[in-house]
Write a structure and sequence with these properties.
Blueprint lengths: L13 E7 L5 E7 L1 H10 L3 E4 L4 E4 L8 E8 L6 E7 L25
Parallel strand pairs: 1-6
Antiparallel strand pairs: 1-2, 3-4, 5-6
């Protein structure tokens, strides 16, 4: 499917889940627009759209923690991307953690 067939939200964005290709570890969630997706597909490295700064950013451009793209998938509704990468450097999270999903909630399941 060409990127033009994807379903972007009303701001022209689509969520992109980034997963480590070798381990399956979920690294981060970010947003892409058509241009940042095209940059990703053309360069082989992840590029995103910053909703807060309103600008493109290449993951790892300043930190060296680049994400080398191995595969790009889209879901059944064509409104979410899954990008499998080789994560270079220490990790994906701006906090210094390997993954952005390092905090775990405790379950408090009660029988009904």
């Amino acid at each position: 499917m060409e990127p033009s067939g994807l379903k972007y939200d009303d701001k022209g964005l689509i969520p992109a889940i980034v997963q480590e290709a070798e381990t399956g570890e979920v690294m981060m969630l970010a947003y892409m627009n058509a241009d940042s997706l095209r940059l990703t597909l053309d360069t082989g490295y992840t590029h995103f759209w910053s909703r807060s700064r309103q600008e493109f950013w290449k993951k790892g451009a300043t930190s060296g923690e680049l994400q080398e793209v191995r595969e790009v998938f889209y879901d059944c509704d064509a409104d979410t991307l899954l990008i499998k990468v080789i994560q270079h450097g220490g990790g994906a999270c701006h906090t210094g953690e390997r993954t952005c999903f390092f905090r775990k909630m405790d379950l408090n399941i009660k029988e009904v």
